[in-house]
Design a protein that fits this description.
This protein is of the alpha/beta class. It has eleven helices and 16 strands.
Length: about 400
Amino acid sequence: MRTAPDSDPIIEPLMYASDYYDESLQQIRFGEVTRDAREFALTTPVLEYTPDQLVVDVPLASPLLDQIFGGGLGERELTYIAAQLGLTGERAELFRSYFEPTPPPAPAPDGDVIEYVGHAAVFARYQGTTFLVDPVLSHSGYPGGAEGRFTYADVPDRIDYLLITHNHQDHMLFETLLRLRHRVGTVLVPRSTNASLVDPGLGRILRTLGFPRVVELDDLDTLPCGSAEVTALPFLGEHGDLRIRTKAGWLLRFGERSVLFAADSTNIAPTMYEKVVEHIGTVDTVFIGMESIGAAASWIYGPLFGEPLDRRTDQSRRLNGSNFEQGKEIVDALDPTEVYIYAMGLESWLGSLMAIDYDESHPAIVDSDALVAYAQSKGRTAKRLYLRETLRL
């Protein structure tokens, strides 16, 4: 029996146009977040979690969600939205209890900035144009939920460009994306070249979810974005040796400054980076993930195989990021002045998405420590990032 879920392409437009795509099956769960620790996301679905939560039937593309997440709702608007969601009685009252008066917006900051805001998320502003990469943001409003963090309350009214590197839940999270949709101008995603069960087109997904402008870039495509420009760079590895091509590192050029968000790229072909440098030149700042021992292939893709993977195959096809030697070769090829390790799952609000328990002996910590030390020994600025940090632009 053929077991590879990447071998048979699917014609996605026909799938979305068929009876198999049924918006009436889509739901949103509303509730109050009171702590970082939450139930694990990759588990058996349930209908209702606790009496203080609501599961509501609503298409994910519904403009009602933009109205809800846009804030500033009075009693009349909340009553109207509750009725549109089919909520009555105690369920309608519970829905209204989730909302409180929206405080006046903080003065919009100005000036150019790059700000690491947790895991793989980075915010940048250059000459008035705003960028947000791979947002998975912390909630706030509970003890410890905002201290030192970049939360939804810190997101500016307008995100001109939202960039997604690849389709893993710690980089492309519907919970975050739907909350931000009303603020987003353009979404940039890697171009889909091999639509399959394991590699769906992100552009089509996001357009179907109601994002009005989604642009797909292929490797080495460049798009002007205000006074900046964005180039898609090849992203290899980290997907269990499956034929998945809908992934990209994002190179942002801010004037003379170049910044690469390499996400979880694995340097399985060192000569590729040498060829990339021939095309784009060296890079000033590199962000790279180093979860060097990733999950087994069955972690995400197991149910999509035609039959269960045997343990040996499963363990040999892991979702690994670069280890020290691979990361070192990337740094040597790109010759940056700054190296930042990110996307490690260190922040406490990632627990519902990632099952990582780090200590000092964990290979990812050992490898990232070694790369930081190596980069510093060559006179480069280098650091493993955590929580929130403003960087020079």
